[in-house]
Amino acid sequence: MLTGRTEVQVRAGAEADLEALTDLYNHYVRETAITFDTVAFSPEERRPWLLSHPEDGPHRLLVAQERHAGSGGGRVLGYVTSSPFRVKPAYATSVEVSVYCAPDAAGRGIGTLLYRTLFEALRQEDVHRAYAGIAQPNAASVRLHERFGFRHVGTYREVGRKFGRYWDVAWYELPLGLAD
């Protein structure tokens, strides 16, 4: 995909991405209520998270990386994950998805590209539903999810406290199973 003069490659996340992914996520930890983590992570603290997302299967980590013409890999522009929805066995065919873009990459189609690639891969797996929790307000994230067919299924009111206030989380669902 081309965004401006930059080509963007989506690929599986790798150990070499750990520092860049941690830095990107920590921006959202420190500056926003998009994530309910409240303390920034070191790359070592994030390593188990990275390793819990193999290259294939239902629980993936995909990275959007900038690639300039005539050069190798560039900086990480964003990432998307599919993770277990809940730990009990009956939930195994459901995943929770999240997408994060570098602040200066917002509005460039990176989130759309990442989700499109992830959902194409998940449709080849034994995944029936994808769920996304969106801290409110976040109109851009709601639009992105609705563009992919997510439907609002409920809102947890004042479920998280960060920056001295309570936040709602709206939950969205996307059917992915073959019979859907």
Automatic annotation (TrEMBL):
Cell wall biogenesis/degradation listed as a keyword: no
InterPro entries registered for this protein in UniProt: Acyl_CoA_acyltransferase, GNAT_dom
Swiss-Prot/TrEMBL keywords: Acyltransferase, Transferase
Gene Ontology molecular functions: acyltransferase activity, transferring groups other than amino-acyl groups
Signal peptide region: none
Organism the protein comes from: Streptomyces alfalfae
Domain N-acetyltransferase: 8-177
Source species, domain of life: Bacteria
Protein name: N-acetyltransferase
